[in-house]
Amino acid sequence: MSDLQLDLAILGGGVAGLWLLARLRRQGYRAVLIETDRLGAGQTRYAQGIIHGGTKYALTGKLSEPAKMVAQMPARWRACLAGEGELDLSGAQLLSAHQFLWSTTDITSRLAGFFASKLMRSRMQALDEAAYPPLFRNAAFHGQVYQLDEPVLDVASLLRALAEPHREVILKAEAAAIELQVGTPCRVSLPGLTFTARKLVFAAGQGNQALLEKLHRPGPKMQLRPLQMVALRGGLPKTFAHCLGASITPRVTLTSHQDRQGQTVWYLGGQLAEAGVDREAAAQIAVAEKELAGLFPWHDFSACEWITLPIARAEVQVGGSLPDDVYADEQDHVITVWPTKLALAPVVAERVETRLQQDGIRPGDGPDLVHALDNYPRPDYAPLPWQEEERWS
Ligand SMILES: Cc1cc2nc3c(=O)[nH]c(=O)nc-3n(C[C@H](O)[C@H](O)[C@H](O)COP(=O)(O)OP(=O)(O)OC[C@H]3O[C@@H](n4cnc5c(N)ncnc54)[C@H](O)[C@@H]3O)c2cc1C
Fold first, then answer.
1. pTM exceeds 0.85
2. How many other CB atoms are found less than 10 A from the CB of residue 382?
3. Tens digit of pLDDT for each residue in 274-303?
4. 228: Cβ–Cβ under 8 A, 6 or more apart, which residues?
5. Is the Cβ–Cβ distance between 327 and 315 less than 8 Å?
6. Do both 259 and 334 map to the same domain?
7. Are residues 168 and 278 in the same domain?
């Protein structure tokens, strides 16, 4: 039985926990991450991979502090993708350098608010027809396409780029076998291994609620916002675009990925996924088919295969709507985090690091952690949901 002294034990290997682990280890902190399933197994593998730039907030015409924070994300991630940022994510795959935006209604008046904001103006530009994505280069398309400063990433390669350099401190354990004791220091017991840690970080997404309950202490409350996403494949051109309807939430958010055979898969979110939560899968697919036929009447979808992918977003409770900030707060040596968006994982890590510094916790020296964790079980990577071939049959 080993007894290790750590600065931090992170529970949860989604984007929030993995980004935090990578950032803190880069600063020299002694941290371990424990995952109960596979890395990315929660919401992260369902993410569309869009690094939001705050367009949605800007469309309200108000430039709040959270909007300014989100606006910095594309540049921050691009630096990481180029290997020049706070983390080296040069191994992560960029699926598209931009997300596009088009509308079925006249959006000129709503975009006036957008263009009134100096910060946002540079982040969205109207395209000439020659520069439209292939799907929109059709005489039947009447509208304007805008290019947004929102890169789209392949989440599977992102998970690997974050986790691979730190595999030696990423451990797998059954949820029921993890024992936690909060104190100065905290104690974490796994089968065959005991740590002390100066702080615990709950980065378990939906699993945070059970972790907080296990401690029998007051903590933040979680909300779940279910979605029923739709995926389709079969002769589709790669497209990355939001369709704006009457509300700020896009009517459809469309990203393109690959199935196991390398075939393009369209992954659809937005209002379609929010409004379709209570529909049977077949009914949700019927609505999606009608929506796409209406939006792209010139494209033939008749040979496509369709599936639905139900999943809930887990966030701090703010009355059922989307929180506009990340949550990273401490109660009694336990920092609970919900990033709200994959794109905001860097902000979560920054807030946790600031918290450690405020409490005088600095990177320390200690016995060889890597050696002590040799031979401990490691979690696999979760597959992307549309790459699970059995879902298509
Ligand atoms: C359909 C969908 C599309 C999205 N698209 C985007 C997008 O395009 N851009 C964007 O910015 N955001 C997007 N998001 C939001 C984004 O996916 C989430 O904010 C983010 O992935 C949350 O990451 P997380 O690490 O907090 O949680 P999760 O990804 O849920 O990870 C939690 C991890 O903790 C593990 N776990 C659970 N219980 C325990 C325990 N007791 N101990 C240890 N580990 C545990 C789980 O197995 C899991 O691996 C999307 C979300 C959804 C649902």
1. yes
2. 23
3. 999 999 999 999 999 999 999 999 999 999
4. 273, 276, 277, 279, 281, 284, 308, 309, 310
5. yes
6. no
7. no
Which residue's structure tokens are 């109660």? 331
Q: How far is the CA of 211 from the centre of ligand 1 (A)?
A: 15
User: Looking at residues 255-277, what average pLDDT do you find?
Assistant: 97
Q: Are 231 and 306 in contact (CB under 8 A)?
A: yes
Q: What is the mean pLDDT of the chain?
A: 91
269 lines ligand 1 (CB under 6 A): yes
Q: Both 309 and 323 in a single domain? A: no
Q: What angle do CA 40, 43, 46 make, to 5 degrees?
A: 90
- CA-proximal residue: ligand 1, atom 9 (nearest): 50
Measured from the CA of 18, which atom of ligand 1 is nearest? 25
Answer yes or no: do 147 and 266 share one domain: yes
Whether residue 64 lies inside any domain: the answer is no
* Sign of the alpha-carbon dihedral angle for 352, 354, 357, 358: negative
Instruction: With H, G, I as helix, E, B as strand and everything else as coil, classify residue 320.
Output: coil
| 363 and 253 housed in the same domain | no
Q: What residues contact residue 390 under an 8 Å CB cut-off, 6+ apart?
A: none
Query: How many separate domains does the chain show?
Result: 2
Domain annotation covers residue 393:
no
Q: In this structure, are 169 and 299 located in the same domain?
A: no
Q: How far is the CA of 42 from the centre of ligand 1 (A)?
A: 5
Domain boundaries, position 7: 2-44+158-221+319-386
How far apart CA 252 and CA 266 sit, in angstroms, is 11
- CA 1 / ligand 1 centre spacing (Å): 32
Q: Report percent pLDDT > 90 for the chain.
A: 76
Reading the block at residue 124, the tokens are 């969205």
